[in-house]
Specification:
By secondary structure, the protein is mainly alpha-helical. It folds into 2 domains: 2-88, no CATH class; 94-170, no CATH class. The chain has 7 helices and 3 strands. The chain has helices at 2-10, 36-49, 81-88, 94-107, 113-127, 130-146, 153-170, and strands at 24-29, 55-59, 70-75. A 3-stranded antiparallel β-sheet has the order 1-3-2, with helices on one face. Helix 4 (94-107) packs antiparallel against helix 5 (113-127). The radius of gyration is 17 Å and the shape is globular.
Length: 178
Amino acid sequence: PPLARDVHDRLAPLELKLQQRGVQRALLDMNSRPELGACSDVLWMLRRLMPHGAARPIMGERKLGERSIQESWDLALGTHQRALIELGYEGVSIEQVLEQRLRRDAYGPRATTAGVLAAVEDATLYLGGRRLADELGARALEVLAAERTVDGAPEVLRRVRGLLAYYRTAEPVLPPWV
């Protein structure tokens, strides 16, 4: 499928045999090879979309407003090839599949404010642009207005504080939904 081919092409700079079964270690040093930043983006999205163990970070993390300069990954894409092919039935790129899943989580019947805010964080971390994050942020307000309990309040507060801290440092103005 085009999505699987696209993923393999985008991870080509790692110079690994991605179709080989078993676990392979990928070392990414974005200081010495800046082109590996794009591979890092793909790996973080795969970690979010694929089964546990397909793409597992050993060193490095991704948080709002932070990016690792070095990362180490255990990759088992050959072992999880079926899951990658199945992603191809959901969309033509991993960005499209991730966007669809985030929307599905935010607009689903069991959506909670904390869950929608988690989707806002993921949209910001993995997809970059503000369009989807703003749409999901507005959805978080709708869900918050409809919630009848305060069970998730601590989680909502923690997520809002994190997003607020990020937007204050990264953007010239706060999004309207904050």
